[in-house]
C-alpha cells in the first residue's frame, strides 16, 4: 500500500474522531477507526462515549466477518489490557478478528498502554505502520488526555478579553461587557467544549458570574481558587446548574494535579488578571485565547460609553498586529 493511500484513510479516521464532542468521551480520548480492503472501506466508527465501546469494537461490529484480512486505520494505538480497565482490549479484539495490518498515528500516551497494544498486534502477526506526520494531529485531537497522561495535569487555556488600549475591565468593574455578543457566544461554546472553568475569588466577588455555557452545551465543572477570601454560599457560581469545586491556599500546581486526578483534561482560566499573572509566572499556561474589543476603555467610565473604532482594520507586521480605525 502506498503512503498516500495510508495517509488518505488515516485522515478520514481523524475526521470521524473530530465529529465526536470532546466532552462525550472525556476523560477518555476521542478515537476514530476505519477498516479498509484494497480501496474499499469495509466499516468505520468512533469511540462515542466514556465507558462505552472503543472505536475499534464499534467498527468491527459493523464489519462482522468482512474484517478478516482488512487494514485497520486508527487515530491512536489500540489499547492493551490493564487492571481496572472498563472495556476489553482493542489490540486483542483486532487480532482475534483477523486484522492483517494496522496503520496508526500515535502511541497511546497512557503509560498503562504506551506501545503494548501495538506489540500485542505485532506478535499476533499483524503488520504495524505508524505515520508520524499525524502525531501533532493526534495530540491536537485529545489535548486534555495527552496532558493528563504525560504531565498529570490538565491542558490550561488562559482566556482574556481586552479593550484596544489593553484594559481588562472598565473603571466601574463591569468587566463582562467589554466584548460584544458574538464573542460572548464564542466563550459559551468554549465552556461547553472544555471540562472545567477556573476563576479566582476576586472575579466571583466583583462579577458574581455563573460561568455556565448558557445553553451552548453541557456546563463545565466550575473551579474557584478562593485563597483566604470568604465567598457567599449564595454566589451564583454555587448555584445548581453545575458542580463547583473550591480550593483554598494551595499552589496552582497542586490544584491542577488534583483536577487531573479527577479526570479534568482541559481547563479554561477566565481570570481575573491576578490569577492570570500567577499562572503565567508559574509557567502553567499552554494556550491563550485573547478577545480584543475595538474600544478605548481608558476614555470612559464603562464599556458602553467607551469610544469605539468604526470599520477597524487589522494587519500583521512581523510578530505584531496593527489595528487602525476612526473614532
Ligand atoms: C482504544 N480505542 O477508542 C479509546 C482508547 O477503561 P477503558 O476500557 O475505556 O479504557 C480507557 C483507556 O483506553 C484510555 O485511558 C486510553 O488509554 C484508551 N483509549 N483506546 O484503543 C479507543 N478511547
Ligand atoms: Zn481500546
What do you see in this structure?
This protein has eleven helices and 13 strands. With 327 residues, the chain is of the alpha/beta class. The protein has a six-stranded parallel sheet with strand order 9-8-7-10-6-11. A five-stranded mixed sheet has the order 2-1-3-4-5, with helices on both faces. It has a two-stranded antiparallel ribbon with strand order 12-13. Helix 5 links the parallel strand 4 and strand 5. Helix 4 runs parallel beside helix 5. The longest helix has 16 residues. It is elongated, with a radius of gyration of 23 Å. The protein binds ligand AOF and zinc ion. The site of ligand AOF has 16 residues, from helix 3.
Give the tags.
single chain, five-stranded mixed β-sheet, about 30% helix, alpha/beta, six-stranded parallel β-sheet, binds ligand AOF, elongated, 11 helices, binds zinc ion, about 25% strand, about 325 residues
Can you lay out the helices and strands and say which pair or pack?
Layout (H helix, E strand, L loop, with lengths): L2 H16 L3 H4 L6 E6 L2 E7 L8 H9 L7 E4 L15 H7 L4 E4 L11 H8 L3 E4 L4 H7 L1 H9 L3 E9 L17 H13 L2 E5 H7 L13 E5 L18 E4 L4 H10 L4 E6 L1 H9 L5 E7 L16 E8 L2 E7 L1
Parallel strand pairs: 3-4, 4-5, 6-10, 6-11, 7-8, 7-10, 8-9
Antiparallel strand pairs: 1-2, 1-3, 12-13
The structure holds ligand AOF and zinc ion.
Quickly describe the structure.
This protein is α/β, with parallel strands linked by helices and 327 residues long.
Amino acid at each position: 500500500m502506498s503512503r498516500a493511500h495510508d495517509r488518505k484513510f488515516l485522515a478520514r479516521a481523524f475526521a470521524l474522531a473530530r465529529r465526536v464532542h470532546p466532552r462525550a468521551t472525556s476523560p477518555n480520548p476521542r478515537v476514530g477507526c476505519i477498516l479498509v480492503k484494497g480501496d474499499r472501506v469495509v466499516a468505520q466508527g468512533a469511540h462515542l462515549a466514556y465507558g462505552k465501546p472503543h472505536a475499534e469494537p464499534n467498527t468491527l461490529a459493523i464489519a462482522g466477518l468482512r474484517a478478516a484480512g482488512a487494514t485497520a486505520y486508527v487515530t491512536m494505538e489500540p489499547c492493551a489490557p490493564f487492571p481496572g480497565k472498563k472495556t476489553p482490549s482493542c489490540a486483542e479484539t483486532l487480532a482475534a478478528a483477523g486484522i492483517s495490518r494496522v496503520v496508526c498515528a500515535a502511541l497511546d500516551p497512557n503509560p498503562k498502554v504506551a506501545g503494548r497494544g501495538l506489540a500485542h498486534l505485532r506478535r499476533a502477526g499483524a503488520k504495524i505502520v505508524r505515520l508520524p506526520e499525524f502525531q501533532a494531529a493526534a495530540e491536537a485531537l485529545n489535548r486534555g488526555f495527552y496532558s493528563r497522561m504525560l504531565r498529570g495535569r490538565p491542558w490550561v487555556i488562559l482566556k482574556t478579553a481586552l479593550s484596544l488600549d489593553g484594559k481588562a475591565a472598565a473603571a466601574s468593574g463591569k468587566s463582562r461587557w467589554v466584548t460584544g455578543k458574538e464573542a460572548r457566544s464564542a466563550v459559551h461554546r468554549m465552556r461547553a467544549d472544555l471540562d472545567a472553568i477556573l476563576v479566582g475569588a476576586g472575579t466571583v466577588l466583583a462579577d458574581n458570574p455563573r460561568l455556565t455555557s448558557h445553553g451552548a452545551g453541557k456546563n463545565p465543572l466550575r473551579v474557584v481558587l478562593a485563597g483566604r477570601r470568604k465567598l457567599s454560599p449564595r454566589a451564583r457560581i454555587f448555584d445548581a446548574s453545575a458542580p463547583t469545586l473550591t480550593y483554598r491556599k494551595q499552589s496552582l500546581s497542586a490544584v491542577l494535579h488534583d483536577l487531573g486526578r479527577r479526570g479534568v483534561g482541559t481547563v479554561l482560566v477566565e481570570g481575573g488578571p491576578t490569577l492570570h499573572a500567577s499562572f503565567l509566572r508559574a509557567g502553567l499556561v499552554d494556550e491563550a485565547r485573547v478577545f480584543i474589543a475595538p474600544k478605548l476603555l481608558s476614555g470612559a467610565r464603562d464599556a458602553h460609553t467607551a469610544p469605539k473604532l468604526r470599520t477597524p482594520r487589522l494587519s500583521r507586521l512581523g510578530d505584531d498586529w496593527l489595528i487602525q480605525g476612526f473614532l
